[in-house]
Amino acid sequence: MSSNDITDPEFYSLRDVLLLSQLLHTNHIGTLETLKSSNEDKLYDIIQKFTSHKSFKLENKVVKLSTIEQLVELYSNLFKYYDVDTTADLANYVYYKRIEELENIIEDKKSEFQQVLNE
Question: Distance between CA atoms of 16 and 22, rounded to whole angstroms?
Fold first, then answer.
């Protein structure tokens, strides 16, 4: 998988993965089996909400995920990448990683701000 492959977890930020896991969770899709047996219209709605989300527009990121097969492959790859078995586990893992990421950004900005003040 290349880094721009739409089913490669590395193509997606923690925020992106958290968004997808929230969409799946709110649609009662907790496992790969549940995803595979879900209503096609529901899955296409999830794909549409995910790919057209404002967070991608803010990043100027185009996500070309468009088929159920791609969604299933991405979901499976995310489970392997993050070593989890359920949507809730994925969401929890990514949530705490995202919090850590944001805390690091805040610390970096504090340091940067302090340097500017000291100039």
Answer: 10
Cα separation, 12 vs 9, whole angstroms: 6
pLDDT tens figures, 20-55: 999 999 999 999 999 999 999 999 999 999 999 999
| DSSP symbols for 4-53 | T-TT-GGGS-HHHHHHHHHHHHHTT--SHHHHHTS-HHHHHHHHHHHHT-
Round to whole Å and give the CA distance between 10 and 38.
26
Give the model confidence (pLDDT) of 81-102 as tens digits: 999 999 999 999 999 999 999 9
Phi and psi at residue 26, to the nearest 5°: -70, -15
At 71, give phi and psi (nearest 5°).
-60, -45
The C-alpha atoms of residue 51 and residue 60 are separated, in whole angstroms, by: 12
Structure-token pair, residue 118: 């000291």
CA distance 45 to 42: 5
